[in-house]
Amino acid sequence: MRVLFLTVAEKAHAYPQVPLAWALRAAGHEVCVVGQPDVVDDITRAGLTAVPIGASLDLAQRVQEGSTAERQDDAGQPAGVEAAEDAEEFPDPTVEMPLDELRPEKLTHDHMQGLFATWVMIFQEMSNPDLTDELVEFARGWGPDLVIWDPLLFAGGVAARACGAAHARMLYGLDLIGRMRGRFVAALAERSALVRDDPMAEWLDLAAECYGGGFGEDLVMGQWTIDSFPGSMRFPVDHHYVPVRYVPYNGPSVLPGWLREPPKRPRVCLSLGLSFRESLGGDRMSVGELLEAVAGLDVEVVATLDAEQLATVARVPDNVRAVDFVSLNELLPTCSAIVHHGGFGSSQTALAHGVPQIALPSEVWDIEVRAQRIEQAGAGLCVPRSQVEEITADRLKGMLVRVLEEPSFARNAARLRTEMRGTPAPADIVPLLEKLTAEHSRPEGSCGSCS
């Protein structure tokens, strides 16, 4: 069978797909990974076939332009016509309309309708007509049996429909869209048909019609969803999920000599993530405060900081080893705790190795809610995202001492590791994916084309 993976043009989105792509290839299936040019090198370095489509996303440049426009507005200066247009094309809904809203009293029909209307503008831009056209053209030519798509790239379901393939989402965190979609559809059902306004359905219906299809909930949710998050911490959503064990892949790496020796005292990893320093506008908290928090503790700290980050601090404490990059999959088995930014790869790799966590989350996607669920499970601590930029070294030091000295954190982290290890590995779910693909595929030529 032929399997097409579709990823957002960021390594943080591409990397979680790699182990399953490897497993499918090892089982004898043909695999390709489709994404914008920005992510092609990351795909090929993983030993997979990349198919570039669309224009470069250039997320770092867009974040920088957005920050510049925001600073100009805050200073009372006009941001300019171009900045204003960008703000309209790329709205930032994370503050006023976050998908991670959990409070039932907030989730009224009107709130959720406005939320989806806002997020559709983002989703439309990510799956813009040019990218969707190119994806559909490739899919019709290559003929995948199964399309596995990033939950933010709804063009994946549209393209699968257009070529008759089965299709599934592959999550990289909590299913915020699935949870919110389920509540919204239930709220719509209680309203008269004359006043049902569904922004997602309206957009995806138009997108699919161009290729001979129409709207169905599978265009939002996939025909099924592959989920690597621990089952005990998932949202209860009425949908077909295929659990899979999270297998860490952190990109190409070399095991350094110092990591081959066991630590002489408790080791702590400090990481602020590659995505934030490379494309998401930099760190949200002071690197100096972080290093001051670990200074004087009887621990060995491995801090993944680059030269630009280190240039912001007056000194590096004697117990800190600063390295630009080291694979967390190799480092964390030697660690007693990790302090990190809350990213999916960092938190999942820590869970996979049973390492207690301290998360310093941002407003990006599900980071704070996911960190809160890890804290609720007793496997770590989470700083509210509204307090991250003001956190002091003393407060962080107190949290780290707790995580290191209170045995419940290590015990609960080990429990979650055991749960993850009991979940089917990527190779184990290949037969199920083959079965589901056979059940959901349609005969070639069953879809029309745009007139």
UniProtKB/TrEMBL annotation:
Q: Where is this region: Disordered?
A: 63-93
User: Which intervals hold domain Erythromycin biosynthesis protein CIII-like C-terminal?
Assistant: 289-436
Entries under CDD domains matching the protein? GT1_Gtf-like (cd03784)
Which part of the chain is the Erythromycin biosynthesis protein CIII-like N-terminal domain?
22-273
Any one GO MF term held by the record is: UDP-glycosyltransferase activity
Give GO BP annotations, semicolon-separated: antibiotic biosynthetic process
What Pfam families does the database record attribute to this sequence?
Answer: EryCIII-like_C (PF06722), EryCIII-like_N (PF21036)
User: What are the entry keywords?
Assistant: Antibiotic biosynthesis, Glycosyltransferase, Transferase
What family does this chain come from, according to its entry? Belongs to the glycosyltransferase 28 family.
This protein is called Glycosyl transferase family 28
Question: What organism does this protein naturally occur in?
Answer: Actinomadura craniellae
